[in-house]
Design a protein that fits this description.
InterPro entries: DUF4170 (IPR025226). This is DUF4170 domain-containing protein. The protein has one domain (2-63). 19% of the residues lie in helices and 41% in strands. It is built from one helix and three strands. It has one helix at residues 34-45; strands spanning 2-11, 26-31, 54-63. The termini are close together.
């Protein structure tokens, strides 16, 4: 099986991370290599504009 990786997230409305601030949501990918997804995750998560309510995650899609 082939895997693809996506980086998803944005700025959330509160510390409970239940809802994104409209317009800040972002999805990057697909990446064929998890390392490339991790590089993008770092770029998005560690920018000067990132706040304490900014969160990104790497998700995996399995293709058959």
């Amino acid at each position: 099986m082939t895997k693809r990786y996506w980086v998803i997230g944005g700025e959330y409305q509160g510390a409970d991370f239940a809802a994104l601030v409209p317009g800040t949501e972002r999805m990057s990918g697909p990446y064929q290599d998890r390392r490339k997804a991790e590089t993008e995750w770092t770029r998005l998560s560690c920018t000067p504009a990132a706040t304490a309510a900014t969160r990104y995650a790497i998700t995996t899609e399995t293709l058959r």
